[in-house]
Amino acid sequence: MISIMDDDIEYQRLNCALGCVIGAFIGDALGSALEFQTCVTQNMLISALLMDGGIFGNGPGQVTDDSELAMCILTALSETAPKFNPDLIGKYYKDWIISKPFDIGRTTALALRPLMNVTDNFWSCASESARIHNKDSQSNGSFMRSSPLAVFCRKLTFAELKEVVIDDVCMTHSNKIVQDTECLYIRFISYLIQNPKDKDNAIIDLFNCLNEVDNENTRKWIQDAFSSQPMNTNDQMGWVKIAFDYAFKQIRKHEINFTQAISEILSLGGDTDTNAAIVGAMIGAYVGYDNLNDDWKKKVEGFDSMSMRGIQREGEFLNQTLVKKKVQNIFANSPDYLIR
């Protein structure tokens, strides 16, 4: 028999799961209006926060490659959960490449374009391409799409979570620092989803998990995020350490407000859509879906590229109106242990 208390905690967890994914999508859509600006004026920020579209011609609430790749993961996980099948994620990455995306980063392109020439073994193809081309890349292209993994992994051990996260990351990024650091980022968010508002114990858990990571560079990134001055967002645009650093600096504030956190990262310029997506996933998981800006939620969740102003994107897997339902499905079917 399920108690009222059990129902309440599950509602809170779902609220955090939706906050994570929708928060990332909101950050992406907002940031697309300011991408690569080195100086963001107050008027530019005010305009961007209206969410009236981006520099690519994407419409109000329409997301970019960050969240389109997240939709690939969402679709695959919603079809297989509680089982995990990275090859199906790779298949949707192929579908995405074939769709001629209007925005794509160099690291992602190098890894995924060979998928256009295969009909199976998608994970192996992308992983091998990433191993050859991207071993030195520390770009933000895997973090930016990762929010659905935090929902799926919410009940897994850290060892199991690492398997899931690295299986996805390695399809574009073979760099071990990126892989190990993303595991910790996802673990932290998963903890917040499963233990709503408990950021103090999430931090304790993070450092316990760090003891299981044999990577001094990853340890340094964590130490910097907790003790160093904020990074310059315009130096080495696209470096994932920037958004990783700001996400942890925002979550450690005494008072956390999603709108304020997103506004702050956008005001710094740089790779704004991806930085805001990465920060938005973590802060969204903490504050929960109910505390996200209603207008932003409405625009992101209601955007239909086939009938609204913006860039047409065909395929059910790129339908933003289905995102919330897919998150709910993954949440409901998230595994107690890793099943392949």
From TrEMBL:
Cofactor(s) annotated in UniProt: Mg(2+)
Q: SUPFAM superfamilies attached here?
A: ADP-ribosylglycohydrolase
In Gene Ontology terms, what is one molecular function of this protein? metal ion binding
Give the note describing cofactor binding and stoichiometry: Binds 2 magnesium ions per subunit.
Residues engaged in binding Mg(2+): 64-66, 271, 273-274
Q: Which domain of life is it from?
A: Eukaryota
User: What's the protein name?
Assistant: ADP-ribosylglycohydrolase
Task: Please report the organism this UniProt entry assigns to the protein.
Answer: Stentor coeruleus
